[in-house]
Design brief:
Blueprint: H1 6-24, E1 30-36, H2 43-58, E2 63-68, H3 76-85, E3 90-92, H4 117-124, H5 126-140, E4 142-152, E5 154-157, H6 165-168, E6 172-175, H7 179-187, E7 191-194, H8 200-205, E8 211-214, H9 216-221, E9 230-233, E10 238-246, H10 247-251, H11 255-289, E11 293-296, H12 300-315, H13 322-332, H14 336-348
Parallel strand pairs: 1-2, 1-3, 6-7, 9-11
Antiparallel strand pairs: 3-10, 4-10, 5-8, 5-9
């Protein structure tokens, strides 16, 4: 009787076991890490959760997005760097945190550049959207997949009502580590203090600083109403928060995976805009119910005039030149001063 050689027998046994394993277990999904600065109960969180669901749906579970909120993966500039290098898959961050990596991206921090949500959409889609994405890819090494539209950064403080420029004088205001925002508050007469986002709540709580600015949804989700008594509706900066992916890592993915991720980014952006428009008013009402006093400015045209005439010229060179700023403004085709004056007229009625 023929006896199979022991070496061949072992090989066939191993092959048989391997086949059984392949049949018994599904293919593992690709795990993609998405880091962000805010908590999940925020507009960033709403965008991220929608993006996560869309990617997993369109990939039929082959792509698995894991969310890391609240700065778990580091401060926002650190997450940008990690995404560039491929150490994490995605970063959802305030657009001002791209400025240290690209001068031109700093233009989006110019005060009163964006007048309303319509301008914000124009700024991030079509010709301008392609413009910023090309800059991000060439200068930073990231691709912008979508945007969270968080609306205007409103000023909060624990000291006193701010309804005019004079009321702001001397207040210690936490500002992101962005030179344009620092210069803006200093030009208005405030004592601007650069501080990372992760340190902000404690600094406000301990009265190291008097105030800060952020959109309604962020102010509410961060529970600033527990430590800030006054809010002023300021319209100097529309908060945009891009979702970025590292170009080198992204290019290694299949064309189908890239198509799915880009589609999810676009659709999550549309969701984020609708979410913000609906939820911002709810956040405002909740903050008022918690005792926060809300004020409108009597003289916002003065704030805008100082910003454009004193701050903008300081940074033309660092954001790509005055011609670049003029080109972006021409694409928006917006008269921001007129819109601010209209707001003041409405407030007086």
């Amino acid at each position: 009787m023929y006896s199979m050689p022991s070496s061949l027998s072992k090989s066939m046994l191993f092959l048989s076991m391997w086949c059984c394993l392949c049949v018994s277990f599904p293919t593992f999904s690709k795990n993609l890490r998405l880091g962000m600065g805010d908590q999940l109960d925020s507009d960033q969180g709403a965008f991220a959760e929608r993006f996560e669901a869309l990617v997993e749906t369109y990939s039929e579970g082959k792509l698995n997005v894991r969310l890391y909120p609240g700065g778990i993966l580091g401060a926002e500039p650190e997450m940008v760097q990690n995404t560039r290098l491929g150490a994490q898959s995605f970063a959802l961050i305030g657009v001002t945190n791209l400025a240290p990596f690209s001068k031109e991206m700093g233009m989006l921090a110019l005060p009163y550049l964006i007048a309303d949500s319509e301008d914000a959409v124009k700024m991030t889609t079509g010709t301008l959207g392609e413009h910023w994405n090309n800059i991000a890819k060439k200068q930073i090494g990231v691709e912008i997949l979508g945007w969270t539209y968080s609306n205007f950064r409103h000023l909060t403080n624990s000291k006193k009502p701010v309804a005019s420029l004079e009321d702001l004088e001397g207040l210690k205001i936490r500002v992101p580590q962005n030179p344009i925002m620092l210069a803006t508050y200093e030009a208005w007469g405030a004592n601007a203090i650069a501080m990372s986002w992760t340190e902000t709540f404690t600094a406000l709580q301990q009265r190291v600083v008097d105030g800060q600015d952020n959109p309604y949804i962020v102010n509410d989700s961060m529970k600033f109403y527990e430590i800030q008594s006054y809010l002023t509706e300021l319209h100097y900066m529309y908060s945009l928060q891009p979702l970025v992916v590292g170009v080198r890592a992204f290019n290694k993915m299949s064309d189908e995976d890239k198509r799915i991720i880009r589609r999810a980014g676009r659709e999550a952006s549309e969701f984020a805009l609708a979410y913000q428009l609906q939820e911002a008013s709810k956040a405002k009402k909740h903050m008022q119910s918690e005792g926060v006093e809300v004020y409108t400015l009597k003289d916002e045209s003065r704030w805008e005039s100082i910003a454009k005439n004193e701050v903008w010229p300081l940074f033309y060179e660092s954001v790509g030149g005055k011609e670049s700023v003029d080109w972006v403004m021409s694409q928006l085709n917006t008269n921001c001063m007129r819109k601010c004056e209209k707001r003041e007229d409405d407030n007086e009625r």
